[in-house]
Amino acid sequence: MKDDRGISTRAIHGGERPKAPGEPVNMPIVASTTFAFESAAQFGRVMSEEEYGFLYARLRNPTVEEVGSALADLEGSDAALPFSSGMAAISATLLTLLEPGDSLLCANQLYGSTYSLVETHVRRLGIEITYADVTDLAAWERPATVRYVETLANPGFPLADLDALAATKGDGLLVVDNTFASPVLCRPLEHGADVVCESATKYLNGHHDVTAGVVAGGAEVIGRIRAYQVDTGGILDPFPAYLLRRGLKTLALRLERQSRNALELARFLADHPRVAGVHYVGLETSPQHDLALRMLDDSGGMLAFEVDGGRDAGERVLDGLRLAARATSLGGVETVVHHPASTSHRQFSAEQLAAAGISEGMLRVSVGCEDGIDVVRDFERALADL
After folding, report:
1. Does 348 have pLDDT greater than 80?
2. Looking at domain 251-384, which of 3.40.50.300, 3.90.226.10, 3.90.1150.10, 3.30.750.24 is its CATH number?
3. So which residues are the catalytic ones?
């Protein structure tokens, strides 16, 4: 039968979507920002959230929902909410859980951007903010609406005893940034945390090509944070959601290799005469090694070391690397190295750097999935130039 519709109408509405047996193995990228309904009644039910459905991409998207479901499964949570970045996830969490007059107790060992968020945006809401060393458990024996720590803190990697910290929270909430561990190494909800935040840009994706974040926890608290996300718009786009889901499939395999490579590199550095110290809980000499055996399923791919000779020597080592990239971020298949005092923690004063255990000669290494011997040789050459 001849189609009497105009050319523009046929270009927009022509053709049929295939309907046949066979489900895609991988979730497709659903790029549509808006969704149609069979009836006005169904439209109204979904709009009012009486019925689960897809209406508008800022509210819900199939590709993003699928990766959220996978993340909830990994974290062992009722629900997980993907965000456009790790900082979007952290800010939505803190600004949802805290109200004027509340109190926030943070670890001294805090990611620089999280510190800026707390001091610039949280404090001005009338929140009382205090800091404590994450390894000084006695300092956490005080009331607070929210406690905030990192499982492995950036960049010296002190390991938080989450079980002990959870025991101090009373009626408050414990929020844990688990970025450096990922759920492969540690699942904070199993240790008494209430909410887990992660920068999915890092290990969860693992390929230095996605910016994303996630918040996981109980259905009630994630529902509150979702309401904040809907209002403020920090949603994850379907394309990075698809890449994140793809990255999750190799997360455990990557971390197994990265942990093995990092331990090999840490042992080499610990024996090098120009290295003043190595921060890696996988080393038997680490003061937190026993805690790591209890808290973590492996030691992970992150380490830091102190170069003898301070900042100048550290920069010379950086410049001598050929395989490892001089770059920020972490958790990817490529080994990357940076200087925390001038990059990730540039917001900190000299006193705050000292309190966080960050020296001028410290270098942070995110060990990748290359052959371990090649990573070691790269650092061996760079240190030989000192």
Report:
1. no
2. 3.90.1150.10
3. 58, 111, 177, 202
